[in-house]
């Protein structure tokens, strides 16, 4: 089964955010507007052969662009197809810790995602550390973005070195999933994932034909258990993200792990297979 490690069912609040204007230019207007029915996300999954998607909440200084409760309501409508990834307000560390506990223990979410560029803070900032500690305590992955920032926000905080490297040193128990490949620092991201046993890479926001050569080499060799497929829907549809997959020349075992096996293991959704 194909598992999409990074997707969103977007709200009008998210789609209307000014910082997404650059993505609208890049995608030629492919990003939709307004409130979308959940059926649209499920249909996009079907078109790409995706059996299960991890839907992400988005929390930033301006509030919830996609709230945890909204994600939970969508998951409840299609629990066999969807799982939740929560997000929290790091400006209130103790409230963030309590919300992580609620996301995991009550809502059944599979991980927590916080985007440093959205907060315009490096992921080594003190406000993030209670989040990492609680993810360790609850045994769920911390998901974030690595690489440059497509939206109109600073890109510096997406550098794998020093940021992801330092977090992995400080929290060796923490499972970290770095989404968006890490470009233009993909080689750094590969080095960090190679160095740390609990650091993974997902391919969200990139189509197969745009995968950097260093990522493909890693996927085919010692990174076969460390790379997860992601689309970043609705910015890129799963079918478009996976077009030309055959051109990678992956053997059957690597292909199965990349498309779903690694995500099932990392996010603890093996029962859904």
Description of the structure:
With 273 residues, the protein is of the alpha/beta class. The protein has one domain: Metal-dependent hydrolases (TIM Barrel, Alpha-Beta Barrel), CATH 3.20.20. It is built from twelve helices and ten strands. The strands form two sheets. The chain has an eight-stranded parallel β-sheet. The chain has a two-stranded antiparallel sheet with strand order 3-4. α5 links the parallel β5 and β6. α5 runs parallel beside α7 and α8 runs parallel beside α9. The chain is globular. The protein starts with a strand and ends in a 7-residue tail after the last helix.
What is the first-to-last residue Cα distance? 7 Å
What's the total count of β strands?
10
Total tally of structural domains:
1
- The CATH class label is Alpha Beta
Q: Compute the average pLDDT.
A: 95
What is the global morphology?
globular
What is the CATH architecture term? Alpha-Beta Barrel
Radius of gyration: 17 Å
Strand order of the largest sheet: 1-2-5-6-7-8-9-10
Strand composition percent: 15-25%
């Amino acid at each position: 089964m194909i598992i999409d490690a990074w997707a969103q069912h977007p709200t009008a609040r998210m789609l209307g955010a000014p910082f997404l204007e650059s993505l609208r230019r890049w995608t030629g207007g492919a990003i939709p507007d307004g409130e979308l029915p959940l059926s649209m996300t499920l249909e996009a999954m079907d078109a790409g052969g995706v059996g299960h998607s991890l839907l992400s909440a988005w929390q930033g200084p301006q509030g919830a662009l996609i709230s945890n409760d909204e994600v939970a309501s969508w998951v409840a409508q299609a629990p066999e197809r969807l799982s939740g990834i929560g997000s929290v307000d790091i400006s209130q560390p103790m409230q963030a810790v309590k919300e992580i506990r609620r996301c995991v223990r009550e809502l059944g979410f599979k991980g927590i995602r916080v985007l440093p560029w959205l907060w315009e803070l490096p992921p080594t900032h003190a406000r993030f550390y209670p989040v990492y500690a609680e993810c360790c305590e609850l045994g769920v992955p911390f998901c974030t973005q690595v690489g440059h920032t497509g939206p109109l926000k600073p890109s510096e905080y997406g550098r794998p070195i020093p940021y992801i490297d330092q977090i992995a040193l400080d929290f060796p128990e923490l499972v970290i999933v770095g989404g968006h490949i890490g470009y233009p620092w993909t080689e750094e991201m590969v080095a960090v994932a190679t160095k740390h046993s609990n650091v993974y890479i997902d391919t969200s926001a990139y189509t197969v034909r745009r995968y950097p050569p260093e990522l493909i080499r890693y996927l085919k060799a010692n990174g076969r258990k460390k790379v997860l497929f992601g689309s970043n829907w609705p910015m890129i549809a799963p079918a478009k993200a996976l077009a030309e997959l055959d051109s990678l020349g992956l053997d059957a075992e690597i292909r199965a792990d990349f498309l779903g096996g690694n995500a099932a293991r990392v996010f603890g959704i093996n029962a859904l297979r």
